[in-house]
Amino acid sequence: MLRKVGRMNYIAGQNNTIDTGEVYFNEIEKTNLSGRKLAVKFLQRDSVLNRPVVDAKPLEARIEYSRYLVDCPNCNSAEFAFEDKLFFCSQCKNSDIQGKARKVKMPKERKEIETILLKRSIKNRHWYPNETLQDLEKQNLKMEGI
User: Fold this and answer.
1) DSSP state of 60
2) What mean pLDDT comes out for the span 64-90?
3) 54: Cβ–Cβ under 8 A, 6 or more apart, which residues?
4) What's the whole-model pTM score?
């Protein structure tokens, strides 16, 4: 007889949320995924919060598959956006700015965007900074089941 030991996996957005890094990594910490302990340890924000922050235009967060993401302007990787609004690339280590953190801009109409996107299935929960609330509503009307 098989027995279930904890939650096996977590998919961003399954709790009817648009996940930031905090939400996602809090959830995977509860799972039995291989490598989760290392991932959670690696993504502790203390090291990011203690870094100097570059004085530059903030990077803009976007939403893809119910996850807030920020694109790295140096290596084109992407990382979760965190509520502390700081970005540090796990791939290039922000090497173009001597390892300093970058500021992140979350959308001004965040709650409204999330409300519109949560009407969609996870695979269709996308938003880019150039899209308006009206754009999202029009997209919803075009999708089946909304």
Assistant:
1) E
2) 96
3) 94, 97, 100, 101, 102, 103
4) 0.87
